[in-house]
Amino acid sequence: MLFLSFVDDVPNERNTIVYKLHVSCEKGSQRLTVKSGQLEWLPEGSQLTMASPAQSGDNQRTYTSFGQSQQNTSERPLGVKYNDITIARLGPGQAIELEAHAVKGVGKVHAKWSPVATAWYRMLPEVVLLKEIKNGDAEELVKRCPVNVFDIEDLGKGEKRAVVAKPRSCTLCRECVRLADDQVELRRVRDHFIFTIESTGALPPEVLFTEAVKILEEKCERVISELS
């Protein structure tokens, strides 16, 4: 069995990493769990030939065209990051023989290469106290907020008042407005956006953001040059 995916480039030592897996579960034995740590790196490239077994010849082509061994360019073996991921569970008499090709690509070509899991944005919340909320009402307001936006400020002489401590945490659930609709107002800062980026693990989120900004700048420059 062969899992192979590449676009325009010929699979070579610079854009493809090849692993093989050959495991079997003997008849009469217990079920066998196959883990990702059993994948074996092939620094010389694919070992599967493109010709059928019936064809003969010494120069049979494989599914990769490595000009040199990846051991010459890699400081350490190219293993998998997590060794305990379950690939399959084999029953007695079953076996798996495969080559897995990890191919370098970009999300523009196919979503499977996108390093971004989820990305979204929201405008910065602004929580405004229209009136002073003191003592028992202040304590009730603090308890009502599920994300602890409000806090208590001690004014001395037994007096307390509510203050907005963490406006950024506000989810605009409006629980505070339901409690004191004439004392609390929720707004959004129209020119302040909070971006949240989740990575698949291929690149850190901060790198994803800076690279995305670079691409956006290039697109803007291209549009400006076309219009000028």
TrEMBL record:
<dbReference type="InterPro" id="IPR036643">
    <property type="entry name" value="RNApol_insert_sf"/>
</dbReference>
<dbReference type="InterPro" id="IPR033901">
    <property type="entry name" value="RNAPI/III_AC40"/>
</dbReference>
<dbReference type="Pfam" id="PF01000">
    <property type="entry name" value="RNA_pol_A_bac"/>
</dbReference>
<dbReference type="Pfam" id="PF01193">
    <property type="entry name" value="RNA_pol_L"/>
</dbReference>
<protein>
    <recommendedName>
        <fullName>DNA-directed RNA polymerase RpoA/D/Rpb3-type domain-containing protein</fullName>
    </recommendedName>
</protein>
<feature type="region of interest" description="Disordered">
    <location>
        <begin position="49"/>
        <end position="74"/>
    </location>
</feature>
<dbReference type="InterPro" id="IPR011263">
    <property type="entry name" value="DNA-dir_RNA_pol_RpoA/D/Rpb3"/>
</dbReference>
<dbReference type="GO" id="GO:0005666">
    <property type="term" value="C:RNA polymerase III complex"/>
</dbReference>
<dbReference type="InterPro" id="IPR011262">
    <property type="entry name" value="DNA-dir_RNA_pol_insert"/>
</dbReference>
<dbReference type="GO" id="GO:0003899">
    <property type="term" value="F:DNA-directed RNA polymerase activity"/>
</dbReference>
<dbReference type="GO" id="GO:0046983">
    <property type="term" value="F:protein dimerization activity"/>
</dbReference>
<dbReference type="InterPro" id="IPR036603">
    <property type="entry name" value="RBP11-like"/>
</dbReference>
<keyword id="KW-0240">DNA-directed RNA polymerase</keyword>
<feature type="domain" description="DNA-directed RNA polymerase RpoA/D/Rpb3-type">
    <location>
        <begin position="1"/>
        <end position="226"/>
    </location>
</feature>
<dbReference type="GO" id="GO:0005736">
    <property type="term" value="C:RNA polymerase I complex"/>
</dbReference>
<dbReference type="GO" id="GO:0006351">
    <property type="term" value="P:DNA-templated transcription"/>
</dbReference>
<keyword id="KW-0804">Transcription</keyword>
<dbReference type="InterPro" id="IPR050518">
    <property type="entry name" value="Rpo3/RPB3_RNA_Pol_subunit"/>
</dbReference>
